[in-house]
Amino acid sequence: MYLRALTAVSRPSIASFRRFARLVLDAPFCASEKDIRPYGKDNVWYIYTDGWAGREPVVYSGGVGKDISTELELLNAFSCRIFIYDPSPTGQETMRSSRNQHKRLTYEPLGLAGRAGTHVFAPPRRAEEGSFRKQATEQDAVNFTCVRLAEQASQRGHLEIDLLKLDIEGFEYEVLDDVLDSGIVIHQLCVEFHHFLPGHTARQTSRAVSMLRSAGFRIVYKRGADFTFLRDR
Questions:
Q1: pTM, rounded to two decimals
Q2: In a domain, 46, yes or no
Q3: Is residue 81 part of a domain?
Q4: Are the beta carbons of 230 and 186 closer than 8 angstroms?
Q5: Domains of the chain: total
């Protein structure tokens, strides 16, 4: 009887155990920030929006993929202006959808990189996922036009950016180098580091995190390779 009762109790799955273990491992990296909250459905990002109400926060977002639910939730909650960049066919198809049209959202079919010009991308590893990524070789190369974030912001008269969100498949390292060198003020940064992709290493991510800390950013949320940083100075 007792044996049957024990076997009837559902056991936690390996996936749920890994998620719990990841939360435990990530917790020491995160500063306490009670007002940070999740935005988005498929791709959830934790964002600190204290002080956004009653003004027009400026948001730049690199990477569309198949989901801009985070950006749409921010638009519904605040009177922000959002500028999205993604040169890929996947991103362009997503942005053609009528549900992703908004008067305060500007989409540019361009990539973000450390230098303006043509860059080599690799096609998606899985067609259903659709992410084009930074490519180290010419094999199966796809070329897309990229721009520098600092130049784009300067052209629009934005000397400060409230939130920069980067999910750009390996280009984040050079973009962060360029943004910090440019002098443009970023108040908050959400970034997925792609050290798990071919051609990248965990050392690159460690260097980027160290560089951001030296520039006055602190980690307020971390889940695996997804980080949220706030700038204190």
A1: 0.83
A2: yes
A3: yes
A4: no
A5: 1
